[in-house]
Amino acid sequence: MSDNWVTVTSSFDTVRVESAADKWERAQLLFEVRDYAKAAQLLAEVAEEVPFQTDLRLLLARAYYHSAQLGKAESQLRVIVERDPVEHYAHLLLGRTLERQGRPEEAAPWLRLAAAFGGEVAEI
């Protein structure tokens, strides 16, 4: 019995390094429970490790948007639309982010593009 106890307790002594995939999963859970600031913090760490993952950056931008970190959201969204110019949702969220910052003139073209990519007729 003593040997079993040593084996069990020693498994708690090791420090487990959280992988990017682990952080991604945890961040998604935080986002789902609307803890956007903590989700953004984790997603930013993952984005440093995996910089070209569009879905990750889009969720990071959404987390920034919902936690009122609008400048950071805008930066992420601009990276996304530069890399993937037909990413419909990134255009929409960039437009909404600019509107929320009180920049409706800058937002309008992004919202029109989002509408066009989404198959909607944009109001001019």
H/E topology pattern: HHHHHHH
Based on Cα principal axes, name the global outline. elongated
Give the biggest beta sheet. none
Helix proportion of residues, in percent?
over 70%
Level-2 CATH architecture: Alpha Horseshoe
CATH class: Mainly Alpha
How many β-strand stretches?
A: 0
Structure write-up:
This protein starts with a helix and ends in a 7-residue tail after the last helix. It has a single domain, classed as Serine Threonine Protein Phosphatase 5, Tetratricopeptide repeat. The relative contact order is 0.09. It is elongated, with a radius of gyration of 20 Å. Helix 5 runs antiparallel to helix 6. 75% of the residues lie in helices and 0% in strands. The model has no long low-confidence stretch (mean pLDDT 88). It is built from seven helices and no strands.
Defining key terms:
124 residues; TPR-like_helical_dom_sf; mainly alpha; 7 helices; Serine Threonine Protein Phosphatase 5, Tetratricopeptide repeat; single chain
